[in-house]
Prior knowledge:
Elements: H1 5-11, H2 20-35, H3 41-48, H4 56-64, H5 70-80, E1 92-100, E2 110-113, E3 125-138, E4 148-156, H6 160-166, H7 175-190, H8 202-205
Antiparallel strand pairs: 1-3, 2-3, 3-4
Helix pairs in contact: 2-3
Amino acid sequence: MSLVASFVEIVQPLNWAMSTPVFHRFLIVLTGWIFAPRRTVTGMLVAAGVAGQQHHAAFHRVFSKACWSLDQLGLIVFLLLKALLPEGTVKLSLDDTEAHKRGHKVYGVGMHHDPMLSTRKQPVLTWGHSWVILSVVAALPCCPGRVFSLPILFRLYLTMTRLRVRGARTAPTPSSLSRCSRCCARRTRSCTSTSSPTRPTPESLCSGTSRATATSRAGCR
């Protein structure tokens, strides 16, 4: 099972954020993500039709060991969305999303307020991750009269307990995402085309954005 050529053309710029072998595996995983009824890595490989042809560990390493920049990937998605954005002010939204986890050895987990389960009289805390997500507010031509928040950048919120384990002395702040939002503003003003023939560098995409491995820890900086 393969993607149509027009969709591959849309996602081709994502290759700028990773090496060619990693992008090839990423494209297979993306194909499986679209067609798989259950979106595990193994399920996506089965849906993509490569199960048994390539070892599944190679695709797990895309997320655990492969070197690619999550911030660069998000900024490239932002540039791809530029055609849907209005002239002038670009609206950004910032919100946190809870992801429930089990076990004490999962990186970055903690007790967080869960707004979906809490009431005004009874707050509920749940164990898991709290992801702070920066999104672009865009109106899609296929849905007139509605707007959507399309996520581009994220950070994992760490509690003070987790920060003390890491030896940090300051409380977590949203300053890193604030810098990323200013970076998006610079890219909006400076970018005139999303089809540049040259491969962008990390500095050209976002000054201060470091290259990191594609793990959950890469989103914690």
